[in-house]
C-alpha cells in the first residue's frame, strides 16, 4: 500500500513548504509555494510531504505527472514511494521540471532507468539582478534609453505593492487583459485567474511587488517571491504596452526594490515563455545570463531496477 497521500494545497501548507523550497536551493520557478498555490486551478495540483521532501502531483496537457521531489535527505525513498504509487494505479511515472542537476541525481541512483525529453518552452529565463537594476552595458543600452525617455516624459513614482494599491492594479489588469486577449489566446484567462488569486492572498503568500505610476495613475505592476536564497522569481509583470518605457521601468524598479530588501540577491527569474513567440522575443531582449532547462523524465527501467 502506497505511503503517499496527496491532497489539495491550502495556505496553511506554506509553513512546511517554504523550508523545503529553501533547502532545495534551486532558481527554478516550479517549486516555490506561491506558484503552486496561484496556478492551482490550471494545473489541478495536489501536494504531499514525504520525509523532508515535497512531492507535487498535477495534470499537464492531459497527463498525470509529478514534479521532481524537492527538499533534502535521501532521494531514493521518495522515488520508490512514487514508483509504488504509480504501480498501484497503473499509470506511468512521469517527473516534470527535471533540471540538469536533478538528472544527475536520478542517473546516479537509477542508471539508464529514466528517459528524458527536453521541454524548451518551459525553460526559465535567469538574469543578473545587478544588470537589470542598471541596464548597464551595450547589450541593454536600448532598455536604458527607454527608461531615460520615460523619466523625462513622466511625473512618475514606483511604490512597494500594498493591499491599498491592489484595486488600482486590478483595474489596470482588466484593461490590459481586454487589449491583449487576441494576441495571447486562451492562456490569458488562466493567467488572469492566477493574478487574482495572488492578489487575494498577497499577504498570506508573502509576495513582494511594486507599482509604477505616472501622475498618480497606475500603469504597471509586478510581483513575485524568493525562490532560493539568492534568486527572486517574478510571477507577473504587467504594464501599459502603449507607454514607451513602461515595461523596462517596472522591471528595473522592482529589481532595485528587491535588491534593497534582500542583499544576498544575485538572480532574477522571469520564468518561461510558454512557447509564445512574443514572450520569447521580450525575454531574450533583457539578455538572460542563462536559461534553466527542464526535462520530462519518464521511467523506463522496469519494476526490478
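Q: What amino acid sequence fits the structure above?
A:
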Amino acid at each position: 500500500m502506497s505511503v503517499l497521500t496527496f491532497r489539495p494545497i491550502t495556505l496553511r501548507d506554506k509553513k512546511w513548504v517554504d523550508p523545503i523550497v529553501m533547502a532545495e536551493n534551486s532558481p527554478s520557478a516550479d517549486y516555490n509555494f506561491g506558484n503552486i498555490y496561484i496556478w492551482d486551478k490550471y494545473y489541478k495540483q495536489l501536494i504531499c510531504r514525504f520525509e523532508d521532501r515535497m512531492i507535487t502531483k498535477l495534470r499537464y496537457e492531459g497527463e498525470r505527472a509529478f514534479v521532481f521531489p524537492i527538499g533534502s535527505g535521501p532521494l531514493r525513498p521518495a522515488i520508490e514511494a512514487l514508483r509504488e504509487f504509480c504501480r498501484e494505479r497503473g499509470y506511468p511515472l512521469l517527473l516534470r521540471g527535471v533540471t540538469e542537476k536533478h538528472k544527475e541525481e536520478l542517473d546516479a541512483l537509477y542508471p539508464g532507468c529514466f528517459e528524458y525529453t527536453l521541454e524548451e518552452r518551459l525553460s526559465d529565463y535567469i538574469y543578473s539582478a545587478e544588470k537589470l537594476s542598471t541596464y548597464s552595458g551595450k547589450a541593454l543600452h536600448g532598455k536604458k534609453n527607454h527608461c531615460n525617455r520615460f523619466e523625462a516624459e513622466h511625473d512618475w513614482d514606483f511604490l512597494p505593492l500594498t493591499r491599498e494599491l491592489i484595486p488600482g492594479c486590478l483595474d489596470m489588469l482588466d484593461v490590459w487583459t481586454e487589449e491583449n486577449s487576441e494576441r495571447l489566446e486562451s492562456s490569458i484567462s488562466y493567467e488572469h485567474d492566477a493574478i487574482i488569486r495572488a492578489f487575494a492572498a498577497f499577504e498570506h503568500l508573502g509576495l513582494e511587488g511594486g507599482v509604477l505610476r505616472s501622475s498618480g495613475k497606475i500603469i504597471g505592476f509586478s510581483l513575485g517571491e524568493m525562490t532560493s536564497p539568492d534568486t527572486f522569481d517574478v510571477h507577473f509583470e504587467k504594464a501599459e504596452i502603449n507607454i514607451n518605457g513602461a515595461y523596462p521601468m517596472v522591471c528595473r524598479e522592482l529589481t532595485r526594490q528587491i535588491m534593497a530588501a534582500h542583499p544576498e540577491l544575485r538572480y532574477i527569474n522571469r520564468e518561461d515563455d510558454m512557447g509564445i513567440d512574443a514572450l520569447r522575443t521580450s525575454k531574450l531582449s533583457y539578455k538572460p545570463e542563462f536559461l534553466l532547462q527542464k526535462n520530462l523524465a519518464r521511467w523506463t527501467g522496469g519494476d526490478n531496477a
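Q: And what stands out in the fold?
A: The chain is about 40% helix and 25% strand.
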